[in-house]
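Each record in this resource describes a single protein on a pair of labelled lines. The shape at a given residue is found from the number at the same position. The record below illustrates this layout:

***
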Amino acid sequence: MALNKVTVDDLNVLGKRVLVRVDFNVPLKDGVITDDNRIKAALPTINKLIADGGKVILCSHLGKPKNGPEDKFSLAPAAARLQELLGKTVVFANDDEVVGENAKKAVENMQNGDVVLLQNTRFRKEETKNLEPFSAELASLADIFVMDAFGSAHRAHCSTAGVTDHIKTTAVGYLMQKEIDYLGNAVETPVRPFVAILGGAKVADKLNVISNLIEKCDTLIIGGGMAYTFLKAKGYEIGTSLVDNEKIDYCREMIEKAEKAGKQLLLPIDTTITADFPTPIDAEIEVSVVPSNQIPADMMGLDIGTKTAELFANAVKTAKTVVWNGPMGVFENPILAKGTIAVAKALAETDATTIIGGGDSAAAVIQLGFADKMSHISTGGGASLEYLEGKVLPGIDVIADKN
């Protein structure tokens, strides 16, 4: 099921207007970008199209504006940062209706190699519902559509899918191609042994991922808050730890599924416990480590224990492919980050292909300084999860296949 999509390398963009869906959904504090990784990740595709003489029209969403246009969700800071990174003028078409007079004029005046950034696509109510006339309006600006926003590929929106009803020449950008190569192929055609590590708080968020990965991988490791529902499914007392009582039977089924399939399912054998969740999240707290089946009634587990960290690290050592999605504990607290650090370190030290699913695990790896040791860090949280579930992502599906 390896995907073979048309890429920007297959296009002739000279003199053509190219609409590129990028992911500039960057965190802002008081109008200042606090992390510009997503903008930097889009640069290879943008630079390629500039170098090839295309007229580059960028569109993206930012945040979740509920009531139409709002200043705090404007893409103006992204335009300014992109201009700095490219070292050339980026014209920001500031239209509340996104495809308004400013955008039309800016596109009309473009020379080959120019760059225009449209206003936040979610300023239009139609965007998230994939409704006309917004798709047609976006498409009217361009001759070619390039999808390079993996973080939004799991959504069928006007700017990720709808535009392709009107623009017939389509391709994926370099960022999308990398995600397809790593995430898609890691799961569909992995070099074995293939180890998958799942963490994070909720079992409910990862139901289908767990089921799909048991079928695909050789070893499935479960840590983080979701592990306690599995431990309860095994009949352990878990104190006041996070639990999803409605999913206990499901966890039991998954334990049986792994057994039947001859797959190794690793759960924490010890856990780091404390009396209360830290407030603020990085507050200093007293912790101790106990076996997973000996959590006191008035204590909660907030990280894997030292023996578990060793067990998980050893499982990674023999792997050829590792996919990791979700931290092992409350990694925002230095005292409760040890499990996540141990796993990140094990991945950094292995020769295996290491793929970090987006969201919190990507944040953890970057924050802990292991980013350059990983083969690939996904730029999509929800999108990478749905990809790991084996779902077809609309934003990839609509792009032309190579003949």
Summary: The two ends are 15 Å apart (CA to CA).
